[in-house]
Structures are given as C-alpha cells and as structure tokens.
Amino acid sequence: MRLADYEGHISAVCRMPKEELDLLYSPSAWSKRLPRDEVIREHVRKMTEATINAKSKLLTTLGVKCGSSGNHRIDVYDCESTPSDAPIFVYVHGGYWQDISVDSSGFMAVPLVNAGARVVAVEYDLAPKVSMQEIVVQVKESIVAIVRMAVQTKSRGVYLSGHSAGAHLVARALDADLRQDLSSAISRDAADVIKGSILFSGIYDLRPLTFTSENVALRMTLSSAWNLSPTNQTNLEQLAAHWHHLRFVVAVAEHDSPEFRLQSEKYHQLISGLGFTSKYVDCQVVDHFDIVENLQEHEYSLTKEILDALGLNRNETAKSLH
Known about the structure:
Order of helices and strands: HHHEEEHEHEHHEHHHEHEHH
Structural class: alpha/beta
Low-confidence stretches: 316-322
Number of strands: 8
C-alpha cells in the first residue's frame, strides 16, 4: 500500500463507528481457537506457568531496578554454562500498555538459554498509573541498564524484542534520545552493542487508538498518539539516522486483526524503504497470542528465527533441562 493510500486508510478507520473500531483493535476478537475472554485468560496462564518453569530450571537474577523512579525493573535468565559473552535477548511484554507483567515474561527463556543466549524480561509501570510517554522513557532506561550489562560481559550483541504493545515500545524507543542516553551513561559507541530487533504482532500507528475504548486508560490526544507512533516520519528519520546498523524481524499472526496485520506489513515496508534489512514473517495458523506463547517450544518456527537472528546454531541447542 502506498503511503498516500495508507494515510487515506487511517483517516477512514478513525472515522469508523466506535464499536467497529473497538473490534478492529481488539486482538482477542480475531482468534479462531477460543472465545475472547478465554483466549486472554489462557494466554496469561500459559505464559505465567512457563515463566515459573523457567525460574525453576534456570539461574535467575530478579527485580533489577532500572532508573531512579517508577517500578520498572528487569529479570535475567541464564545458566551455569551460559558464556559470559552470550547474546542477550530482551523481551518487552504486551497487554495494551495496561496489563501483564514481568512475572509472565520469561516464558521463552528455557529454549533460548539452552541454545546459548541470556534472556532479559522487562517490567514497566502501566497505564493509567503513568502516561504513555513515561512508559517509553522507562523502557529506554531499561535498555540503558541492559546495554551496560552487555558491555560489562562483552556480549556479542543485544536483541530487542516485544509483543503487541511491547513491539510498539521497542520500535518507539529507538530514537536519537536513546542513542544519546547510551553515549552519556556508558560510552560513545555503546549503542552499537544493540544489533537487532524482533517484533511480534506490533502496533506502530497509534492514531486510531485515540478513538477506541482503550484510550480511556491511555489518555492520548491525536497529536501525542502520532508523536508516539514509530511510523511517524520524524521518528522514522531518527531511526534511520541513529540506528542504521540494526537488522529487523517483523512478525505477524495469520489470525491477527486486519489492522494489526496491515500495520506490521506497513512498518516492514517503511523501514525496508529506509535501507534496513527487515524480514517479514507471516506466521500461519497462530493468532495474536500463541504467536508468542509458542516461543517456549524449541522447534517453533519463530524460536528458530530468534536463534538465527542471535547467531546461535539451533542444531547445537542443548537438551531441555528436566
């Protein structure tokens, strides 16, 4: 879709009746597996149980504080055989910026740590307790803490990932301010430790959300939503100017809503047009929730994509810990 056509589409979507717009931006409404409320409950249950399992099988450093204010912190997963220079996979959870927590964000740690990675799950304060702008700042502060750790361990690289709202937060965090924060806090070339970004079923243009029920908690204006959108031209220019070395994977579910699918495709097209290496992955059969739930499985296609992105030979993946 051409940019002019996309802008026309967004304008039309924003004029839809509120009930229709709520449906388009309600991921649970598009699952083919389970009813709406049940698919969300099952999503949280599976992620929480897998996170508890990861904590029982792996070494963990939990609740590492990031920043001077707020409740944002990180949990780190590795094992005795994890190399000091292991690549670091960072996961920022979804939940429409209002739900889910770090306590259910380590669900993919076992297969990735077994393959030689270190996994870091990010916690941030939620809306409406804090503003969307503050959430972005907290994620940036967490990234600074993670890069500092990566420099200390001489990590082969940091790979930022996020699901749904978490994908938005990762994409929006990659701006000029973050690069400057890394330079000031660590070293001039600290930003180069971040090698890539893996985004799952993200939302990259927030303008339509200002007309949905979600915005009661998010409290965005049309102007602030556009400023927070990774597809904003200014934000894209900052991405290209300061993060040109990154490689992207942009994944979306077959049974995501039409709007989430369009936004993922459009973001991929935009960053590819800026010269970034971006791989678009359309995951068949799965929906907005099991696209990441399945990351706890060694043989899942996106688990393999992650290992490829991190430069880990999945054929040498260690056996599961039992």
